[in-house]
Design a protein that fits this description.
Layout: H1 2-24, H2 49-60, H3 64-100, H4 105-135, H5 139-159
Helix pairs in contact: 1-2, 1-3, 1-4, 3-4
Length: 165
């Protein structure tokens, strides 16, 4: 369970790093994104990917060289990831017709198997990229990232209801 959460944190770091680096190269003061959407009761819904990445980059004190290397890795992964994500989206669109229309178990089963294969490929590629990104961190940054993950885990545990017996 801990390994999965660590992978998710690394995945978030990878996505956020790529997004922030890409956006930082094109954002000018006039083209800054609007503030995050507000909850109906006036509270912010939380940080978006770009804000989260900037937060992690600040917390881990990433160097410009690390940011550049991470950006390069994300750019190299894009030609592999984009078609996989598109394929997964197309399968989801096909599945939607069986939610909104007549259900056909055999066809849904076949689509679910296709989606499973695509998700496996996505997981392998994401894990490869996350490993490469993680290897760019210094020993201190790795320790700090693990500490942040442990603190996040602890906060998440505090918000979960006790198990039912």
């Amino acid at each position: 369970m801990k390994a999965i959460r660590f992978r998710l944190l690394i995945a978030a770091l990878a996505v956020l790093m790529g997004t922030t680096i890409a956006r930082s190269q094109t954002i000018t003061p006039d083209s800054a994104p609007p503030p995050p959407p507000m909850h109906p009761h006036g509270m912010e819904m939380g940080m978006g990917f770009g804000e989260h990445l900037r937060f992690l980059a600040d917390k881990l004190n990433l160097t410009d060289e690390q940011k550049t290397q991470m950006h390069t890795l994300m750019q190299q992964a894009r030609p592999t990831m984009k078609p996989l994500m598109q394929q997964q989206h197309q399968i989801d669109e096909q599945l939607r017709q069986y939610v909104e229309g007549n259900f056909d178990q055999a066809k849904v089963q076949a689509l679910a198997q296709q989606k499973s294969q695509v998700q496996t490929q996505i997981t392998v590629e994401e894990t490869r990229v996350h490993n490469q990104l993680y290897q760019l961190l210094t020993a201190d940054q790795k320790t700090q990232l693990k500490q942040m993950e442990a603190e996040h885990e602890q906060r998440m545990q505090q918000h979960q209801p006790p198990p039912e017996e």
